[in-house]
Amino acid sequence: MKNIKGTDEAWDSGQLGQDPKHAKRSPIDNGALDEAVGLKSISVRMPNSLIDDLKAIAEINGLGYQPLMKQVLTRFVESEKKKALREKASEARRRAAEEYKDREEPQAAVCG
Q1: What are the domain boundaries of the chain?
Q2: What is the DSSP string of 53-107?
């Protein structure tokens, strides 16, 4: 199939495909939208003072408190995962060093 000359450029520039006369609004399905972007709505009870503090911090940073809460929770989870991995790696290094040490120590001769 052969393209009409200049068609790709017309789509890229918006000359084609962006006329509101040919647009149709799709119904919003929030469940499908959330699923498509990997989100799940939850309900969490928190002290009013904590929510007020989050709202104040969010306002200072120019965002809503719920996006801020997502950022806070994401940072916490990433930090905890890194901490757990560091602890596992440290334990593995310690065990490897012990095994190496055990192999290097001369075995006492058993005389009978």
Answers
A1: 31-98
A2: HHHHHHHHTTS-HHHHHHHHHHHHHHHHHHHHHHHHHHHHHHHHHHHHHHHHSPP
> Which residues are CB-contacts of 41 (< 8 A; sequence separation ≥ 6)?
34
The Cα-based distances of 21 to 6, 9, 13, 40 in angstroms read 22, 21, 18, 35
Q: What is the DSSP letter of 4?
A: P
pLDDT for 13-58, tens place per residue? 888 888 888 788 888 888 888 888 888 889 999 999 999 999 999 9
Q: Determine the straight-line distance between the first and last CA of the chain, rounded to whole angstroms.
A: 92
The structure's pTM equals: 0.58
Alpha carbon of 108 to those of 103, 105, 111: distances in Å? 13, 9, 9
d(CA 104, CA 47): 58
C-alpha angle 64/68/71, rounded to 5°?
150
